[in-house]
Amino acid sequence: MHAPSPLPRTALLTGVGRRRGIAAAIARGLAADGYDLALNFHSPYDQRVLGEDADVEQLAEELRAGGTRVALLPGDLEDPAVPPRLVAAAGEALGPLGALVTCHCESVDSSLLDTTVESFDRHYAVNVRATWLLLKAFAEQVAPGTDTPGGAMIALTSDHTVHNLPYGATKGALDRLVLAGTHELTERGIRTNVINPGPIDTGWMDDEVRAACAARTPGGEIGGTDTVADLVRFLLSAQGAWIRGQLLLSNGGFATPAL
């Protein structure tokens, strides 16, 4: 098999928001690998769900100080007009995109009996429909059947379901649509993968939750944001290009029973 052509060193990341989040760690890692970055965020989500303000501007300053070109692209992904607009704006700012990494989500705890239709619909719009529209727009920038290097798309997922109905259900749908991309978009040179990082503390865990998650991991600890970023960096590299159409568990063995 011939070596794949290198991807353009440009990437669009969604759901960046806070500097201690997973997407920020991925941004730092890709910047270290020479990528220029378009960072999408939606401050009202951080305020509504996490009670924190997005500090993506400080992250951008940090990355620019290291020589990375950064475009900040706010937008609420519940609006179906936003995903293609983000891809277009990222391309205008940075040139053709080589990578799309979707870290955005709507995540509000609720169960079978108390989830509202409004909440379920927003989860679906953000977690599923927006991911589809982002991948669609990302693929459409590449003409089929050409010598283009194509691109790589990575989505973050979760297997949480109990008392987290709309989040877990829509993450399951996200997995299916992203993995289909590797087969449906092969003529455009697009490869897709999904990462399930297990529980990562980005500020939402209290001591009890942190201890419970650590206890369900063979090593007695939980992963950090850098453990996710390291896998993303590998999958976007030439060395990781043969990994395609996979749902990868990168969770330290979380909830894996002892044999």
Explain what the structure shows:
Keywords: Oxidoreductase. With 259 residues, this protein is α/β, with parallel strands linked by helices. It has a single domain (10-249), classed as Rossmann fold (3-Layer(aba) Sandwich), CATH 3.40.50. The chain has eight helices and seven strands. The chain has helices at residues 22-32, 43-50, 56-65, 82-94, 117-140, 165-184, 207-215, 225-236; strands at 10-14, 36-41, 70-74, 99-102, 151-156, 190-196, 246-249. The protein has a seven-stranded parallel sheet, sandwiched between helices. Helix 1 links the parallel strand 1 (10-14) and strand 2 (36-41). Helix 1 (22-32) crosses helix 8, helix 4 packs parallel to helix 5 and helix 5 packs parallel to helix 6. The longest helix is centred in the middle third of the chain and has 24 residues, at 117-140. The model has no long low-confidence stretch (mean pLDDT 89).
Layout of secondary structure:
Elements: E1 10-14, H1 22-32, E2 36-41, H2 43-50, H3 56-65, E3 70-74, H4 82-94, E4 99-102, H5 117-140, E5 151-156, H6 165-184, E6 190-196, H7 207-215, H8 225-236, E7 246-249
Parallel strand pairs: 1-2, 1-4, 2-3, 4-5, 5-6, 6-7
Protein name: Short-chain dehydrogenase
GO molecular function: oxidoreductase activity, acting on CH-OH group of donors
Family: Belongs to the short-chain dehydrogenases/reductases (SDR) family.
In short:
The protein is an alpha/beta fold and 259 residues long.
Keywords:
single chain; 259 residues; alpha/beta; Rossmann fold; 7-stranded parallel sheet; 41% helix; 14% strand
